[in-house]
Design goal:
With 177 residues, the chain is mainly α. The protein has helices spanning 3-10, 12-28, 33-41, 48-67, 77-95, 100-120, 127-143, 150-176. It contains eight helices and no strands. The chain is globular.
Amino acid sequence: MIRAHELRQNNAAEYILYMWQTEDLLRALKFDFTLIEQKLIAGTNDSEDEKEELRQWYRSLMAQMESENIMNHGHLKTIQVRLKELEFFHRLLLEKTDAVKYRQLYQVAQHNINEFRQTKGNQNLGDVEACLTALYGLLVLHLQNKKVTNATGQAMQTFSALMSELSLAFKESEAAL
């Protein structure tokens, strides 16, 4: 099974982060399928059938990105929809009286979310999008072997804990449907 499909079913926040990374990888490889084959497919331990499934998946993503005119920047509409679903579900959880743990995690993260919005200069950024954007930025810094301050690391831990709980509750909610 393609990792993205597994994440989409089991962890919505990780799915979004994974897809953002995949979009950026395709851009970095300039949508050159020879490079995609070498860098993203050939080195896997997957069977030949699984590799073919990956090839088709990458080709499909590239076609979607081209048709949505996001070859240079932006995110696939399907990913934007998933993000909006998570934002909506986040607001629902904040109103639920029995979502005590989630509200506590949000209270811990809220100051960091507001600081991140201020740093980005975008006060309209949703809570979930702010957390995921910050976590994606942290991933990029790690990939570049750059260090982060203790304060940044602690803020990211609050975002990670909140997104983990949100994804778990979201999965449970979807399973109940």
